[in-house]
Design goal:
Helix 1 runs antiparallel to helix 4. The chain is built from five helices and no strands. The protein starts with 5 loop residues before the first helix and ends with a helix. It is mainly α. The chain is about 90% helix and about 0% strand.
Length: about 200
């Protein structure tokens, strides 16, 4: 018997779409960090030796932004694969329902064998879907750990900004913006973590 109903698959599809929107938001914010980091590196060079540490941290934040976008691409790929599996499930639910009706009307027909094959295929797709969900959960945890590192870098940049002498004010403003953006990403990832699609077993 098919474990998943059309309404359950439809709900999964809706949740996947919401997750995809949140991922897009994180990607756009990560891109913003990259631009900010390039500007911060330029600012640190203007500040000279007093902002050497700030420059190094800005470069690390630039690398963080690139790594985060790569990580989010993995999540996007998993989301697209999940959409494919849900689409197959929705199609199979309809076909399975028709086959069951055929078996009820003619129990000795070839529809019985076809129904058994269809239900076996449904089980295979259900297992693939569960595997994708687990991979998504792991990739999300990887992204979250990466954001923890980004938070440390942003807070360290705040400390380094204080040594920027005449540029200290400008460096503090930039490091504050880094911190705010990393917190925005953390909030988005927390939202994804709480998604019923991710937390479902």
């Amino acid at each position: 018997m098919t474990k998943k109903s059309a309404s359950t698959a439809g709900a999964d599809l809706l949740r996947i779409v919401r997750i995809n929107e949140e991922i897009k938001l994180v990607v756009s914010v990560a891109f913003k960090i990259n631009i900010m980091a390039l500007n911060a590196i330029f600012l640190a060079k203007r500040a000279g030796t007093a902002a050497l540490g700030f420059g190094v941290l800005s470069n690390e934040l630039r690398v963080f932004s690139q790594d985060l976008r790569t990580c989010m691409q993995t999540l996007t790929d998993l989301i697209h694969a999940s959409v494919g599996e849900v689409s197959v499930t929705l199609k199979n639910v309809r076909r399975t329902r028709l086959l069951r009706a055929a078996v009820r009307m003619a129990p000795e027909s070839s529809a019985t064998a076809a129904l058994a094959r269809r239900e076996a295929e449904n089980e295979v797709h259900e297992l693939k879907f569960q595997s994708l969900r687990k991979q998504l959960k792991r990739a999300l945890e990887d992204a979250f750990q990466m954001v923890e590192l980004g938070g440390v870098l942003a807070k360290s940049a705040k400390i380094e900004a204080a040594y920027g002498q005449s540029f200290a004010g400008a460096l503090a403003q930039v490091s504050g913006e880094f911190d705010g953006i990393v917190e925005e990403i953390r909030s988005s990832l927390e939202s994804l973590r709480r998604s019923t699609f991710v937390t479902a077993r």
